[in-house]
Amino acid sequence: MKSMKHSVIALMIVLGSFMLYGCPKSAEVSSAPETQPQKAEQAPAKPAEETAAAATAEAARKAAEEKAAIEAAAASAAGLQPIYFDFDRAFIRDDARSVMKANADYLKANPKVKVRIEGNCDERGTIEYNQALGQRRAANAKKYLTDMGISGNRITLISYGKEKPVCTEGTEDCWQKNRRDDLIANNE
């Protein structure tokens, strides 16, 4: 009996040691997320040059807007007024006809003055579409002036599309200000 007790105890010890060695050790559990080593190719924070370039670009955009406003004011002082268009249209509106007549009268009174008609659009639409629309607007204004007796040789056209806004808010009132032809006097 004694030997049987020893055999059972020996068997239990052997089975216990197999169980201890056979079970994997428990993994360490952490509440912190695992972090992977950072790659050397990660983008660094914006350098000072990029920030300065963005500030310079913004200052250039504001300067261009101010220049456009000054040119429009100079045109007004010269007797030439801008005309405005409906959304996605290039025809001369009824309210712009009196302005175009006044512009033609000014050009008739000043035969040495040449005029550059600048077609502009609001920000909606593609660059290409707005360039073409601005060109059609300028061409219609030129035709209107030539029909009123102004020589076509005195008129040049350019389309800025949506590149020269006088207003940058995303509202209908602002967009209306950008859908225009500026008539710029050129005393050559």
Considering the chains and any ligands shown, give keywords for the structure.
four-stranded mixed beta sheet, 188 residues, alpha+beta, 60s Ribosomal Protein L30, Chain: A, 13% strand
Helices and strands, with pairings:
Blueprint: H1 2-22, H2 48-77, E1 83-84, H3 94-109, E2 113-120, H4 127-147, E3 155-161, H5 172-178, E4 180-187
Parallel strand pairs: 2-3
Antiparallel strand pairs: 1-4, 2-4
| Structure class | alpha+beta
Determine the mean pLDDT. Answer: 79
Our estimate of the beta-strand percent is 5-15%
CATH level 1 class label of the domain at 83-171 and 184-188? Alpha Beta
Do you know the CATH topology of the domain at 83-171 and 184-188?
60s Ribosomal Protein L30, Chain: A
User: Any idea what the radius of gyration is?
Assistant: 38 Å
Question: What is the number of helices?
Answer: 5
Shape: rod-shaped
What helical percentage do the residues reach? 40-55%
Sketch the topology as an H/E string, one letter per element. HHEHEHEHE
Sheet with the most strands: spatial strand order: 1-4-2-3
Reported for the largest beta sheet, the result is:
4 strands, mixed
Number of strands: 4
Distance between the terminal alpha carbons, to the nearest Å? 130 Å
Spans where pLDDT lies below 50 across 5 or more residues: 29-43
CATH superfamily of the domain at 83-171 and 184-188: OmpA-like domain
Q: What is the level-2 CATH architecture name of the domain at 83-171 and 184-188?
A: 2-Layer Sandwich
